[in-house]
Amino acid sequence: MNTNLSPAEMARYARHIAIPEFGLQGQEKLKAGRVLVIGSGGLGSPVLLYLAAAGVGHIGIVDFDTVDDSNLQRQVLFTTDDIGKSKAETAKERLLALNPHLDIVVYKTRFTRENALELVKDYDVVADGTDNFPTRYLVNDACVLAGKVNVYASIFQFEGQVSVFNYPISENERGPNYRDMFPEPPPPGLVPNCAEGGVLGVLPGIIGSMQASEVIKVLTGVGEPLAGRLFLFDAASFTTRILKVQKSPDTKIEGLINYEQFCGIVSPDELRPVKEITVQDLYDWQVQGADFQLIDVREPHEYATANLDGELIPLGSVSGAAHRLAKDKKVVVHCRSGARSAKAIRELEDQFGFENLYNLKGGILAWAKEIDSSVPAV
Amino acid sequence: MAKIIIPTPLRKFTDNLSSFETTGTTVQEAIQQLTQTHTGLERHLFDDHKNLRSFIKVYVGEDDINSLEKGATVVAPNTVISIVPAIAGGIN
After folding, report:
1. In angstroms, how far is CA A147 from the centroid of its own chain?
2. CB contact under 8 A, A182 and B57
3. Parent domain of A219
4. Would you name the residues of A annotated as active-site residues?
5. CB A3, CB A103: distance < 8 Å
6. Among the residues of A147-239, which ranges form H helices?
7. What distance in Å separates the CA atoms of residue A89 and residue A220, rounded to the nearest whole number?
8. Residue B91: what pLDDT?
9. B92·A65 Cβ contact <8 A
10. Quick check: helix, strand or coil at residue A238?
11. Residue A331: is its pLDDT beyond 80?
């Protein structure tokens, strides 16, 4: 493959070439580099923008999703006009507008155990910008099995993590991977997910830029990659820490597995159904002055933004507060969309034998849409 | 006193406190003081057999306590203990 830079590329990358330890050779390595970016959202946006600007010659983008207005607070690849469009296609268009000297391949699909090894095989480095535990473990395991470097980053509220996993440390040996850090994921509900927890919009910009920097270092061999170390950043206190990551003798990755099952995620079809009412039913009960109790299992900050005047008992503390629930009348339990409240109901039924709990179908989102548009749909 | 840094996802169980000062002389004592003060944390850090959960790492300085003396790792008055959970967000 010809990795010689054209005069136009030489001019474009002049500030890279001027760095003594980077130079022309580093830039040619970037041009020859092949990077698969999984997820073009919060982290993927800055990663892709900087890799494209830097001149990484071959970039793959895996994203099945479309642009939503709630993405734009942090996903700087996209604009208001892009709402509803394919993220991967839109990203490609934007990146080629930034740098036409690139080969960009789009995979409008989920990253699954069926396609993972096929997708990573043509790339040197994988940048993990996914947003859930099953895919994180899948990305890790696929990289280990295929012998690819996994440049990892993750974010939550004000906090970010970065590391370089499965980095070659000798001909036959690789550095630690994600499972050496965290052998198993948290079961659902034990640690809040990002949809509940939110994220400071600029945080993926900061952390994703560091991720891009590590990808560039891995491709060029310049500097010392963050292998065997975990970088932590807390934007709230502006503190950083670098911790050592060691290989664990217990880590064994012999093939790809069912990652949903591994992470304890049960599909909605497999869950026991709960009794439910519609938002119209709830409205009618209110108008009729029916005697019932309304419980809101969202987090306090969600309640402060919008609520239906229910009693706040966050999902994580619902068992400890079971005594606050009436047993002699109907109790309607709601959350944002109906998923957390269904979980709360199952927990209360299993542990305390409640038989009078009703899930509000569609949660406060359905209420905002069908009953009262003045309630913010957040 | 030694300090335990609480990660963002677990601060909802510590009244939003980002750190906790402890007089514990080992990691185990220090974390016990933390979970006795903030009881909601217990089940997020330990399983039913009182083992540290597999998605939580505890560090003394920059070292994983698994590479030191685990719960018996000595804590000096100026030690910084970090609790590091797995976080999954990339926010698609």
Report:
1. 23
2. yes
3. 33-265
4. 194, 335
5. no
6. 178-181, 194-197, 203-220
7. 27
8. 44
9. yes
10. coil
11. yes
- Minimal CA separation from A356 to chain B, in Å: 27
Q: B85 to chain A: which residues are within 8 Å by CB?
A: 186, 191
| Domain ranges across chain B | 2-85
Assigned superfamily of B2-85 = Beta-grasp domain (3.10.20.30)
Residues A261 and A273 in one domain: no
CATH number of residue A297's parent domain: 3.40.250.10
d(CA A157, CA A134): 20
Residue A6 lies in a domain: no
Tokens of A275: 């009794």
- The residue of chain B nearest to residue A133, with distances taken between CA atoms, is B88
- pLDDT, tens digit, for every residue of A263-290? 887 666 667 889 999 999 999 999 999 9
Give the model confidence (pLDDT) of A157-188 as tens digits: 999 999 999 999 998 999 999 999 999 888 77
Contact yes or no for A159 and B55 at CB 8 A: no
Q: Does B43 touch chain A (CB under 8 A)?
A: yes
pLDDT of residue A1: 57
Residues A277 and A241 both lie in one domain: no
Q: pLDDT digits over A186-235, tens only?
A: 877 665 554 556 889 999 999 999 999 999 999 999 999 999 999 999 99
Position B92 scores a pLDDT of 40
The closest of A127, A302, A128 to A198, measured between CA atoms, is A302
Tally helices (H) and strands (E) across chain A: 15, 15
**Cβ contacts of B42 within 8 Å, gap of 6 or more:** B35
CA distance A67 to A84: 5
Instruction: Please determine, for the modelled complex, whether the ipTM score is greater than 0.90.
Output: yes
Coil, strand or helix at A359 = strand
Joined tokens for residue B71: 């719960």
A351: helix, strand or coil = helix
- B72 in contact with A, Cβ within 8 Å: no
For residue A46, which of A217, A201, A221 has the smallest C-alpha distance?
A: A201
pLDDT for residue A83 is more than 90: yes
Q: CATH code at A62?
A: 3.40.50.720
pLDDT digits (tens, 9 = 90+) for B49-87: 888 998 999 999 999 999 999 999 999 999 999 999 998
| Closest residue of chain B to A161, computed from CA coordinates | B87
A132 found inside a domain? yes
Phi, psi of A330 (to 5 degrees): -70, 140
Using alpha carbons, select from A317, A45, A34 the residue that is nearest to residue A148: A34
